[in-house]
Amino acid sequence: MKKKHISMIVTTMFAGTGLLASGAAHAQANFVDRGNPDNALSGQCIDGTNPLCVATKSGNYVAVSSSSYSAGTNAKAGVAGIAIGDQSNANSKGGTGGGGAIAVGVGAQSLANSATAIGTVAVAAGNTSLAVGRQSAALGDFSMALGNVADAKGDRSIALGHSALAQDSQSIAIGSAVGGGNDGVSGGATYDATTQTRAAGKRAIAIGAGAVTNGDDQIAIGSGAAGANNGGTPVFGGTAAPVGGAVSFGSLAHERQLKNVAAGAADTDAVNVQQLKNVNSGLQGQIDQTNTNVTNLGTTIGGQIANINTSLSTATSNITNLQASDALSVKYDGADKSSITLKGANGTTIQGVADGKDAHDAVNVGQLDGAISPIQSSLSSAVTNIANLQGNVTNLSTSLSQTNANVTNLSTSLVGTQADVSNLQAADKRNVKYDGAEGFDKVTLQGANGTTVTNVAAGKLSADSSDAVNGSQLYATNQQVAQNATDITNLQASDKLSVKYDDAGKQSVTLGGVGASQAVALKNVADGKDAMDAVNVGQLSKATGDLSTQIDNLDQRVTNNTTQIGALQQDALQWSKSAGAYDASHGSGAAQKITNVAAGDISATSTDAINGAQLKSVQDQINGQIGGATKNAVVYDTGAQGDRLNSITLAGGQPGAVTITNVAAGALNATSADAVNGAQLYATNQRVGATEASISNISGNVTKLGDQVTAIDGRVTQNVTNIANNTTDISALKQDALQWNSTLGAYDASHGSASPQKITNVAPGEISDTSTDAVNGQQLNALKGDLSGVDSKASRAVQYDYSADGSTRLNTVTFAGGDKSAPVQLKNVATGIADTDAVNVKQLNDKVAGAVQEGTKNAVQYDVDPTTGARLNSVTLVGNGSGPVVINNVAAGKLSADSTQAVNGSQLYATNQQVSQNTQAINNLDNRVTHIENKVDDVANGKAGLVQQQDAGSPITVGKDTGGTSVNFSGTSGDRVLTGVAAGVNNNDAVNVGQLNSALKNVADNERVRATATDANTNWIARAEAGSFGSTATASGKNSVAVGQGSVADRDNSFSVGAKGNERQVTNVAAGTAPTDAVNVQQLNDNVQSARSDAKAYTDQRIGQVYNSFNDLKKDMYGGVASAMAVAGLPQPTGAGRSMVSAATANYHGQQGFAAGYSYVTENNKWVVKASVTGNSRSDFGAVVGAGYQF
After folding, report:
1. Which of 55, 192, 386, 719 could make a disulfide contact with 372, Cβ separation 3.0–4.6 Å?
2. Where in the sequence of the chain do the CATH 3.30.1300.30 domains occur?
């Protein structure tokens, strides 16, 4: 609130009282004794540039100036300040500055402009800071500390909870210390770092009991959570990108799952498991196929090189044609894919070649050296040439051609080895080759139904990786994608179960949806607190009970007024037409004693009333007859023939009614005859008003009585008539009527003689458990006769309780015995009449039903079981015409995992908006996944990647868009065997083991190398629907290709480079571009990283929006509560004709509310009129006017 508002309120409060200081403040005029407002006391009020009011007196003294207010011993208030409480100080920065400080509480200190400190020893030292709670401290500018010993040290920091600490600027600590915290002192409290919630670091956030951050921009969420530094290594490799901070949901060894994460959409959004599973699912099948198609590509290329044409001369021609093509690409030499010529100007090195084992395997330099070494003694001139072979295996033919005469012109010698070459050519059928002589950038696997490439090692997952990925890598991605799909499905299913607004106007919510045919129970609703909170049945039942009590009280007051207006004396024992007898209830509706009754005649014909002495005599006789064992028994009454009656008459050992204890609650229904206990009757009594007197006690002046009776409404008209008719008998009636003796508290039958008199002609009274009728002598005589026949059956009777030593009989009866704890039902109880009579359940139900019928007509009640009547955990709302009911003005319910509060339309609208945005984000993600799938299709179809084929009949290219002069086949376990290598024909062709063995055989013993002709017609390779390349490789599927030893391609259109359990890795896979291209790890990593980034950004954005909206809503709500509290705190005058101007302030959850009002009591003290205005720190204002009539 602004300073001028405070000044206005204070001025209004004390206008005309002479208590305000103007100009130089005067001590006598500015101090007020609150206990005696008319007396001014001495004090100190300094005016000038820094007005300061100090209340120096103890007790009820208040200091007030035109711009400040202080109350309490040594309370100090600066410019526009408020100080309430002993030693409180609201003096901004030593009295300088804009002022407006507020300090409320013993020792509270508000030391900065517009600062507020509320609580014992609370300190608000920062500008516009707020400290609420014992020893709370808000030390930074714009800081907020809420809670005992809460400490907000940094500027704009927030500390919420016991011992919470927000240490640095813009930090937030929400949560209480684990196990209680620390009772330090404000401004210097020593906090226990192991238990408190602490946010250390700029912009750090710690939420939860004991949550701790220790760095800038850290976020720790959850009990015991510890903040973490940003950084780390991404899941798929690479270097972590710089981020603004890290969020921790737990601590080391106490991690938490982050559940219910919406699908990410933006680059920085978090992705949930379902999204990752969806990505994996979409990529799995195609990448698996691609992985198997390109596994061990180097081995495949080596095998294709061995596919020699019909003769070496034809191969030489093909090599010449290939040399004209792209020098940087590796391609087949011709359309028949029988050979591959590497294009290095001086030959091309093939590195990482494992030792050849089979006849058609490529050999490495190590093998060649090992084979030539034994014959070096006879081939000394070949040493130099063989050494050259060690440096460059791919130039093996050139190296051999430079050897001495024994190995000179190795290519020519190989021409003569036709038989050996024929064997090599036969193996060429299993080789994989480039598609054509141009580009060397495409390889088509020849399986009729595709070819599986197996045994693919895990490719590198990074932005620049061109490695092929294997099935296990893609499976992991698919699992994540599938999980993402499940999470999205769950989110969509969850949305179907959400309660939503009926329309965009958010004015109503229909449970079950608009047009629902069946009402829905709104269960587990917490108690409403604020004005717009939903209330539950428990609150409504209590309110109904309170309302019923108030109605009963009102009935009582009306009855009392009626009695007072009549001013009728009711002391006479008079005849009741409805009862057909004299009614001794004295207008109370309960039985009363009749004292001083003379002993009546006891005979068969007597109608005299019996007094207590006579009945005591009968009781003594009973005790004597039934003996000591049954003297305390409660027995059934017996009839004239000795038969047992359905009644029990209780008579205590001392005067007064007898207590029946341990009575179980009787059934409450129309047919119940159970006894009800005190608790049940108490509830009924609360609702039963005093019975209107039906008999008027005639006394006083007849004229005055007639005037008073005339004022009574139609209910006593008959009584007025009766009184008028009996005017002449008043004197005699006053003399002879049995009247009430207030001194004795009973009807006195002495008839003015001061000695007992008989009451004769008493009709037989009702004999029952609850009867309070007087009995006549005839009934007592019959009772004496009945009692003479009491026998041992009395041992089964209910007995009175006795003292522990058995000497004193108590006025209580414990059913089932005094040592029993379980209640016992008292059944078949007749309808009670007097105060001490037991009542049955039917009476209780009738009374309760009548009392609350009007109050519950429009009440919302719990549903009840139609069979048992038990209250159910549901409420059915029924409107006009049995239609659905709108619940309006419902406050925003708490949104948390354990909340049972009802939510209103605005909350559900926000949820719907969020769901709509999530749906859009999911659609966007689906589009990106589709884009990735298209890329995967490109790789699989040969349109992109390292190995490509643009059309089904076009050549296959390998690495056509990349550079490099060597192919490295080495793996993590060392060199690999390059199998399926056809016999080399050109100087820079790779040679296989068969060629080497033939060469060695021909040069053995220094003999000249010999060769036989090769039949060109038997060694060309043709593939129809399937093909296999490698020892024991099998391609049984249509259009399938199996490459590599033991490879199996048993599915149509598959390419395999291994078998189950013996997979191979396809490396150096270029990034796929066409829909059927294979994707490499880098592409996968980029797309997954992009999805993760998008999800994180979207999640952060939505969380921020929800947080801001919730924070604003919360502040508005707190401001409204503060305004309501301030209005409730406005006092009002109590004396007739008095007026009062009052002001009040309140603080609730950091929001301030203010109220000022005027109230007036009329001269006749009947009417009270009030008018108030309110405002709060949320800039919300209101006004209220009310009037009341008191009587």
Report:
1. 386
2. 1108-1189
**DSSP β-ladder status, 1167-1176 and 1151-1161:** antiparallel
> What is the phi/psi pair of residue 17, to 5°?
-95, -15
Return the closest-CA partner of residue 771 out of 672, 650, 616, 660: 650
**pLDDT higher than threshold 60 for residue 744:** yes
- Token pair of 933, please? 């799938």
How far is 852 from 550, CA to CA, in rounded Å? 11
**CB-CB contact of 622 with 790 (8 Å):** yes
Backbone angles phi, psi at 187, to 5 degrees: 80, -20
Instruction: Describe the crossing of helices 537-566 and 678-687 by its angle, rounded to 10 degrees.
Output: 60
Q: Please tell me the distance from the alpha carbon of residue 273 to that of residue 492, in angstroms, as a whole number.
A: 15
The phi, psi pair for 118, rounded to 5°, reads -130, 120
Pick from 727, 674, 665: which is nearest to 696 by CA? 727
Q: How many CB atoms lie within 10 A of CB 1005?
A: 6
Confidence of residue 470 (pLDDT cuts 50, 70, 90): confident
Contact 733, 604 (CB under 8 A): no
Angle separating helix axes 537-566 and 702-710, nearest 10 degrees: 150
Contact 1037, 1054 (CB under 8 A): yes
Give the CA count within 13 Å in the CB-facing half-sphere of 209.
Answer: 6
Terminus-to-terminus CA distance in the chain, angstroms?
A: 39
What are the DSSP E strand ranges found in 420-511? 441-442
Q: Look at residue 815 in the predicted model and tell me its pLDDT.
A: 64
Torsion sign across C-alpha atoms 522, 527, 533, 535: positive
Helix (H) or strand (E) holding 103: strand 102-104
273, 481 Cβ separation under 8 angstroms = no
Q: What token pair was written down for 580? A: 């057909």
Tokens at 730, concatenated: 């008043």
Q: Are 883 and 514 a contacting pair, CB within 8 Å? A: no
Q: What is the 3-state secondary structure (H, E, C) of 1057-1097?
A: CCECCECECCCCCCCCCCCEECCEHHHHHHHHHHHHHHHHH
**Is 929 strand, coil or helix?**
helix
Give the C-alpha distances (Å, rounded to integers) separating 333 from 320, 337, 837, 962, 989.
9, 6, 119, 19, 11
CA 1040 to chain centre: 56
Tell me the whole-structure pTM to 2 decimals: 0.28
In the chain, % helix, strand, coil (3-state, to 5) comes to: 30, 20, 50
Q: Which CATH number fits domain 1108-1189: 3.30.1300.30, 1.20.1440.120, 3.40.50.10330, 1.20.1420.30?
A: 3.30.1300.30
Q: Provide the total of helices (H) and of strands (E) in the chain, helices listed first.
A: 21, 53
Q: Over the stretch 270-292, which tens digit does the pLDDT of each residue have?
A: 777 787 777 666 655 555 555 55
Q: Which residue has the tokens 């081995």?
A: 299
Residue 950 in tokens? 């643009």
Three-class secondary structure of residue 78 per DSSP: coil
Q: Convert the pLDDT of each residue in 703-712 to its tens digit.
A: 343 444 344 3
Q: How far apart are CA 7 and CA 69, in angstroms?
A: 10
Cα gap 983→1116, rounded to integer Å: 86
Q: Report the distance separating Cα 356 and Cα 306, nearest Å.
A: 13
Amino acid identity, position 870: A
